[in-house]
Amino acid sequence: MWNHRIFDEIIEGDDDFVGMIAYAIYKQEKIKWINVQYEKTGSYPVKDEIDRYFHDVASTPDSLARYRQQAENIVNKFTQLSLLEELDEYKKQLRDDQIILSIEEKLYKSKAKTIFENVISGLVASGIIVVLSVFLFLYDKMQDETFNQASRIPDIIQNNLPDSLNDDLSTDVSEKTNRKLSDKSY
Questions:
Q1: pLDDT digits (tens, 9 = 90+) for 31-43
Q2: Using an 8 Å Cβ cutoff, are 63 and 4 in contact?
Q3: How far apart are the first and last CA of the chain?
């Protein structure tokens, strides 16, 4: 059995996440040291060599504090990266929400503007139709009045002529009217 208690010295409790990472850093250094010794000598170091040359140095308070500091740096970097990713995602969500809100506002304004333009167009078109209808009505009335006045002209002329001319003219007009009516065959 090993005669050192590095695990207990690095890890302060079951929920000591930083301590567990510090122990992993210690184990990584130990494996590197063993591999370097193998490359130098061609054989792996025995337990006494590991205790004497590695554990004695690795178990000093400065080494243990260094492992813990490295572990804290790793946890802080991981936390920062996680928070930065989360912050970036939150910024993207805010940006997307702002874009959607802006588009919705523009669509609402566009719809309101379109409705307003359509109402104005309808009112203008209705106004034009009313003006044209009034104009046509008045024009028709004027035509009827002109026709009525024109049809009364012969009566007015006849009433203003002396009686002797009036008899000759009425006979002549009656004959011409009858001739024209007989010439036309319906």
A1: 999 999 999 999 9
A2: no
A3: 139
